[in-house]
Amino acid sequence: MNTDHVVRTFVDYYEERGHRRITGSTLLPPPGDPVLFTTSGMHPLTPYLEGRPHPVGRRIVNVQRCLRTTDLEEIGDATHLTVFQMLGTWSLGDYEGPLSLEWGYDLLTEGFGVDPSLLYVTVFGGDDQTGPDTASLDLWQRRGVPVELTVEDNWWSNGPTGPCGPDSEIFLWTGTTPPESTPTGDERWVEVWNHVMMRYRRLDDGSLVPLPQRNIDTGLGLERLASLLQGRTSVFDCDVFAPWHSLVPTLWPQDELSLRLVYDHLRSAVVVIGDGVRPANTGRGYVLRRLLRRVLTVLRRDEPGRSLGDLPPDLIRHTLDHFRQDGDTNVVRRILLQEEDRFDRLLERGRHVLARPRFQGPLTEEDFHYLHDTHGLPRDLVLNLRPQ
Ligand code: SER
Asked: Which residue's CA lies nearest to atom 3 of ligand 1?
């Protein structure tokens, strides 16, 4: 089942159950939102979770592109991507958690053909502010699915304040042995679907108040689900990455981990540029700059002459299409090249400055500040030129 088929099956299933599909938003949250990028499907829906009536009704389904920089250091493992698509469903003050979990379970097992004996779920066990989520626990026990109770891991929020609530996460066993242990006890249990009972708002003082309505917000990562359904051990092996696998390793031969970083970061950079971001020294533009500099650093490690100008335009097109962006391949390419050029000039300056006698010993914090403030050389880049 390729990713397009997964999306269709998912959307059809929820449309048959009264949900209306809405178009996903861009990666850029509306002005005034303190977060740089959209990090989950619920993000653009926050006003509706807080009670504003949604124009299409109380049941919604969509596919939302998301970007998470919190996971940047985990890139290259089997389950994380910087930019990914999240399939999501919402009940805006309509049906309750158990029905959402029931539908989720049926879609996974009957719609997607997941073996029920490979599932495990987690449920919020309660803390000093909120009681345990007994409704979810009862549902799972009735369906005969093994349950683990946790506290922090089953409380979802998008930040220190705002809408939040207990969640129930569905895990799929990915090991080659029969399932063992529990989701928190064995990494081979991979989270595929999160159902959040979004019914509280956390205030500045840390207290919780009920939202005007009891919502359900569910999300599952498309590339992760697709790779599992395709029997792959990593997100990088699902169909979306097939064109990358067929073109990049011959163009820029390197170890598997470096290839994964290159795929992830370049693909993310293309999508971010496609949503109108340009490299800069602050904010979103800086995230883009960091992604591209990391790629260039990895590419140049083995072969200093490598250039983003050699990236096949088909990969740019394929990525823009996958994320339903109409961006122009040539514009994306031009921005990649301009940024590469800038990076090269910075490296050149860095080498020149670091050759001075003053910088021959170990670098101090003061040196790093000076190099940054006077010569525009970020710490990462200095460390690259002069590993400590
Ligand atoms: N908001 C939840 C998540 O990101 C479910 O969509 O996991």
From this structure: 219
Strands 20-22 and 119-124: unpaired
Nearest C-alpha to atom 6 of ligand 1 is from which residue?
219
CB-CB contact of 133 with 154 (8 Å): yes
Cα 101 to middle of ligand 1, angstroms:
14
Q: Report residues whose beta carbon is within 6 angstroms of any ligand 1 atom.
A: 40-42, 88, 156, 194, 196, 217-219
pLDDT in tens, 312-322: 999 999 999 99
What SS3 state is found at 326?
A: coil
Helices (H), the chain: 3-15, 46-49, 97-106, 134-143, 222-229, 242-251, 256-274, 283-302, 313-322, 329-354, 365-375, 379-385
Structure tokens at 306: 């490598």
Report DSSP letters for 177-212, one per residue. Answer: SSP-S-TTT-TTEEEEEEEEEEEEEE-TTS-EEEEE
Amino acid at 2: N
Ligand 1 nearest atom to the CA of residue 40, by list position? 4
pLDDT tens column, 46-70: 999 999 999 999 999 999 999 998 7
Q: What is the mean pLDDT of residues 177-201?
A: 97
Q: How far apart are CA 277 and CA 285, in angstroms?
A: 6
Instruction: Compute CA 90 distance to the chain's CA centroid, rounded to the nearest angstrom.
Output: 19
Residues whose CB falls within 8 Å of the CB of residue 176, separated by 6 or more in sequence, listed in order: none
**Is 260:80 a contact under the CB 8 Å cutoff?**
no
Q: Are strands 155-157 and 162-173 parallel, antiparallel or unpaired?
A: antiparallel
C-alpha to C-alpha distance for 72 and 281, rounded to whole angstroms:
18
DSSP letter string, 27-51: SSPPTT-SSSS--STTGGGHHHHTT
d(CA 221, CA 86) in angstroms, rounded, equals: 5
Distance 115 CA to ligand 1 centre (A): 24
Nearest residue by C-alpha to atom 4 in ligand 1:
40
Closest atom of ligand 1 to 41 CA is 6
Ligand 1 centroid to 186 CA: how many Å? Answer: 22
pLDDT-derived band at 388 (thresholds 50, 70, 90) equals low
